[in-house]
Amino acid sequence: MSQCAYCNEETKLCFAEVPICPKCTSEREAKRKPARTQTEIHSVLKDELALATEQAVEATEAFLKVTTEIPSGLPHPDSTQRIHNASHDMSQARERMALAHKRLYDYLTNGIAPDDLKRSG
Is the dihedral of CA 91, 93, 98, 103 positive or negative? Predict the structure, then answer.
């Protein structure tokens, strides 16, 4: 099981390879309105990338903090689990950042708007 990218609840559900729980999916869909212009699409994609980048930086800082707290000897089992958890969180955050970057890149270079941002109707 993975942790929801928004509320950290355990979930099996993924959207665009990003773990998200049903509750957060419903909330996001209720808030999200289809983008109507190229400017809006561009703005949404830039905001998504900025947020994902910020989360990746925070996860990296948390990982570094955990790894620097361990003395030069062998880590205790709890420390090993903390390192594993921080590494997993950092990996997930980097994957979300890479996905956000790809979505923006595809839009800017090829004009491909993600399906969730296209005008409906």
Answer: positive
The predicted-structure confidence for 92-108, as pLDDT tens digits, reads as follows 999 999 999 999 999 99
| pTM for this model (two decimals) | 0.65
Give the number of other CB atoms < 10 A from CB of residue 50.
12
pLDDT digits (tens, 9 = 90+) for 16-64: 667 777 777 767 766 666 556 888 899 999 999 999 999 999 999 999 9
Residue 20, both tokens:
């998200």
The domains of the chain are located at: 1-32, 36-117
Q: Chain-centre distance of CA 7, in angstroms? A: 11
β-pair partners for 35: none
Given a contact cutoff of 8 angstroms between Cβ atoms, the answer to whether 9 and 23 are in contact is yes
70 token code pair: 């361990």
Cα separation, 91 vs 47, whole angstroms: 20
